[in-house]
Specification:
Number of strands: 7
Pfam families: Aldo_ket_red
Oligomer: single chain
Shape: globular
GO molecular function, one term: oxidoreductase activity
InterPro entries: AKR_Detox_Biosynth, NAD(P)_OxRdtase_dom_sf, NADP_OxRdtase_dom
Radius of gyration: 19 Å
CATH topology of one domain: TIM Barrel
Keywords: Oxidoreductase
Strand content: 5-15%
CATH architecture of one domain: Alpha-Beta Barrel
Protein name: NADP-dependent oxidoreductase domain-containing protein
CATH class of one domain: Alpha Beta
CATH superfamily of one domain: NADP-dependent oxidoreductase domain
Amino acid sequence: LKELGISHLDTGARYPPLNPGMPEQLIGQATEPSNRFIIHTKVYTNTATDGRGDLSRGPMKDSVHTLYAHRANPATPLERQIRNFNEQIQQDHCNSGVSNTPVAVLRDILELCEQNGWKKPTCYRGNYNLITREMEKTLLPLLRAHGMRYNGYGCAHAADFLTTKLVNNQYADTRFDEANPLGELIQRQFANETLQNAVCNFDKQLKANDLTPVEVAIRWVAHHSALEDDDGIILGVSKVLQVQDTVGFPRKGPLSGAIVSLAENF
């Protein structure tokens, strides 16, 4: 990762679904202070270890750059949640962020911060790709108005849908697989026949230009999307070769006008 120029790692207490917290432990074991990555992690509200004091102030200050609320905790008043995050910020333990937060809740968070003189979240983490662009309409303008960055995940694969593995029934060992805890849910999410026909047609047209949907998706989000220089692209991969390919795609530069038009009309 260092050789590829990657210096930030995104993790969370919720990952993975069947063994929450393991990635945080592995990162802690693998990174020496002299070779540390900038780490962004998230607090979730229903894992066995969250809220039990496992993340002490010392380790947080030493290693965590941004602590996200993976979601707002419905059992705790929002004002109390934001106050607790601000206590960490004021003591220089970390920055705060929000993840997958509905626009209405984010407005409430920002209003509470303004009313109480609290620091606002510095960034928002959410889904963003060729087929998930709703955030451009309302969420992104709200973030810009309050000086918040957007860190997008799912940019390259759209939950693996753009790999065409689902439409070609080649989804064994992917996140669509029934063995995956979220496999059936994700299959239903992309079960729309019109959407599946669209990705098949998209793939066919790109092959004629010696391109793949995944390459076009990542180059589009890097060079042609609504993201700005201070925003981030979160890459989710499971193999070293995937990391190399995915990082290499944006470095090929912008897409041609014809391909951008094809992508924008996908």
